[in-house]
Design goal:
The structure is a homodimer of 323-residue chains. The first copy, chain A, is an alpha/beta fold and 323 residues long. Chain A has one domain: Rossmann fold, CATH 3.40.50. Helix content of chain A is 49%, strand content 11%. The first copy, chain A, is built from twelve helices and ten strands. In chain A, the strands form three sheets. A six-stranded mixed sheet of chain A has the order 5-4-3-6-8-7, sandwiched between helices. Chain A has a two-stranded antiparallel ribbon with strand order 1-2. The first copy, chain A, has a two-stranded antiparallel sheet with strand order 9-10. In chain A, strand 4, helix 3 and strand 5 form a beta-alpha-beta unit. The longest helix of chain A is centred in the middle third of the chain and has 19 residues. The radius of gyration of chain A is 20 Å and the shape is globular. The relative contact order of chain A is 0.15.
Chain lengths: 323, 323
C-alpha cells in the first residue's frame, strides 16, 4: 500500500507529473500551494485587491472558488463571485443552483446575471439568429458581461478557472494555425485599461485538470459534471486536448514544463497588433468601432444591447450590498 | 468505382489532404509538381547547381532520388548521390545495396562513404564508447561526412529526404520544449558558408510521408522498409509524429497548412544565437572550438578523426571520375 511522501500515512492520490503519492491532507496542501505559487510567480493578486471570479458551476471555477476563499485571508484580498445564467435550459438552471451553494460554502458574495432577463433571449437563440457557433457567441457574451460587472464593482481583476490543460491546448492550437500574435494573450495575467477593461488572471494556470477533478472529489465539492449540451466535440481544440493528455501520460510533466518555459519566453513572441479601442455605442473595449457584444445583439435582436446591459448591471450592483 | 479527377480513368489513389482521387499517372504528376513547386517557392535548386543527395536507402531519400533525377533536365542541375555505410550490420549492407541500384536506375553518380573504412568502427561502437544515444551520434556523423563530401565536390547544396511529417514533428517538438531559436533552422533551405559549410535543402518539405510511400509503391521503387535496429521508438518526437498523423486524419490538410504558415512566419522567430565557427582541429563548421565529430571520435577512439576523414574523402573524390 503506497504511503504519503510527506507524512507516511496511507496515500490516496498519485500525482504522475510529480511522481508523488500523497494523503488527502497533503494533496490539498500541494494543490493550494501550487495555486499560491502561481499567484505569486505571475503577480496575479495583490494585497487589498478586489477579485471577481467567473463561476460557471463546472469543476474548474468551483474548485478555484474554494481555493481562493482559502487563500483570501493570507493574501488579503476580497473575493466576489459572478455567475452568468446563459439561458441554456436545464443545464443553466443546474449551474445557477450550484453557484448559489458555492457562494454559501465559500462565504463569498455572488452576483447572478441572467441573460434572459437582460436580453430576453439565451445563447441558443443568439447563436441561431446570428448563425454563429454557440461557443463563439457564448465567449463574447461572457467576456462582455464579466468585464462590465467587474468595471462596476471596481474590481482589480477577473479570475477564471482556465486550467493548465486548457491553456496548453489553446497555445498549441494558436501555434498550429500560426497565430503567433495570439500567444501572448494566453499568459497567466493580461493587464487591463483603467475604467473600462479589467485585468484577467488565471490562478489555475499551472494546475492539471486531473488534479482539479481529484481535489473536487476528495473534498466533496459539488459541481456540474454534465457538459454543455451546445459544446462542439469535433473541434481541433477538443482533439488537441485529448492528444496532449496522452502525451502527458507517456511523458509525465510535459505540459507543465511546456507552459512554464512558454511564459518565460513570452516576450519573444510578436506583440498583438490590435489596439484596444472603445465601442462607439457602449464604451466597452473593442478591437473595432463597435464591440462584438453590440454587433451580435444588434444582429439577433435588431438593437445593440451594450448600453442596456451596462445599465442593468449598474442597477444590480447599486442594489446589492457589496462593499 | 472512383475516377481520376484529371482524366476520368479509374483512380488508384485517394489524397485525403487534397480530397482528390487520381490515377497512377496523375498521382505521379501531382507529386512531382509538388516537389517542383517546393523547389521553386523556396529557391532550393537553381540552374547550374551541383546537388548532393544524402541517400540512406529508406523510402524518403530513394523517392527523392527518383524525383530529382526526373526534374534534373528541366531545371538544369547535376545530381550526385552520397551513401554513408554506417556499419550497423546487415541493415547497413541492405541499404548500401539499394543505394547502388538506385544510382543505376537514376543514372546519378554514387559515392559511398564507409564508416568502418574511415574510422575502423561503426555507429554501434561509437555510441557505446561515447555513451551517447545512437541516433544522436549518427546525426553528427552523417552531417559531418555529407558536408565534408559536399565541400570536396564543390556542391551548391546537400539535399535530404526529410518529409512534411518529419519537419512538422521536429518543429512541434522544438515548440513544446520552447527552443524557439531552433525553429528557423528547420526551414526548407538553410544557407551555407563559402568553402566549409554547404547549404542544406529539403525538397520533400511539402510532401506527406504517406504520399511518398504511395509513390514508391505505384512506381515499384525499391527501398529498405526495415527500420534501423538502433532507432528509439520511445522518444517524444516519435510519439508526436503518431499524434500529428492522427490529427491530420481528422483534419485533412492540417500539416501542410501548418508548415506553409510557419515558413511565412519564420522571420518572426528569434534568430539562432550561435555563430558558426570552424573546428580548430579539422576546419569544419562548429558551434564551439572543436566540432562534434572530432569530439566524438576523440572520446571513442582516442584521437579526433576529422582531419583523417576529410583526407579520406578528398582521395575518394580525386579518384572518382565525377565532373
Amino acid at each position: 500500500m503506497p504511503k504519503c511522501r510527506i507524512c507516511g500515512r496511507k496515500a490516496v492520490v498519485y500525482l504522475r507529473h510529480s511522481r508523488l503519492w500523497l494523503c488527502s491532507e497533503h494533496f490539498n496542501e500541494f494543490i493550494e500551494n501550487r495555486v499560491m505559487r502561481t499567484i505569486k510567480r505571475y503577480n496575479l493578486i495583490r494585497k487589498g485587491d478586489r477579485v471577481l471570479l467567473g463561476l460557471s458551476g463546472g469543476k474548474d471555477s468551483v474548485v478555484l472558488a474554494h481555493i481562493l476563499s482559502k487563500l483570501r485571508e493570507s493574501i488579503g484580498f476580497k473575493l466576489y463571485l459572478a455567475h452568468i445564467n446563459l439561458g441554456i435550459g436545464e443545464y443553466s438552471e443546474k449551474n445557477a443552483e450550484v453557484a448559489k451553494k458555492i457562494s454559501e460554502k465559500t462565504n463569498a458574495p455572488l452576483i447572478i446575471l441572467d441573460l434572459r432577463k437582460i436580453l430576453g433571449v439565451g445563447i441558443p437563440e443568439l447563436a441561431l439568429k446570428t448563425r454563429r457557433p454557440p461557443c463563439s457567441v457564448c465567449g463574447v457574451v461572457k467576456r462582455y458581461l464579466l468585464n462590465a460587472l467587474a468595471v462596476e464593482l471596481k474590481a482589480n481583476s477577473i479570475a477564471t478557472g482556465h486550467n493548465l490543460d486548457d491553456m496548453a491546448t489553446f497555445i498549441l492550437k494558436e501555434f498550429l494555425v500560426q497565430n503567433l500574435e495570439q500567444i501572448p494573450k494566453l499568459a497567466p495575467r493580461i493587464e487591463g485599461v483603467k475604467d473600462y477593461l479589467v485585468a484577467k488572471i488565471k490562478p489555475l494556470y499551472e494546475t492539471y485538470e486531473e488534479d482539479i477533478k481529484k481535489y473536487a472529489e476528495l473534498n466533496n465539492i459539488l459541481y456540474v459534471e454534465e457538459k454543455c449540451p451546445l459544446a462542439d466535440e469535433t473541434t481541433l481544440t477538443w482533439h488537441l486536448k485529448k492528444h496532449l493528455r496522452d502525451l502527458e501520460y507517456r511523458f509525465p510533466g510535459l505540459t507543465i514544463g511546456f507552459i512554464r518555459r512558454l511564459v518565460k519566453n513570452i516576450e519573444k513572441y510578436p506583440k498583438p497588433g490590435d489596439t484596444i479601442r472603445r465601442c462607439s455605442i457602449c464604451g466597452m473595449p473593442s478591437s473595432g468601432k463597435i464591440c462584438s457584444f453590440c454587433k451580435i445583439t444588434e444582429k439577433a435582436l435588431g438593437k445593440p444591447m451594450g448600453p442596456h446591459a451596462r445599465e442593468y448591471i449598474k442597477e444590480i450592483v447599486d442594489k446589492s450590498i457589496i462593499d
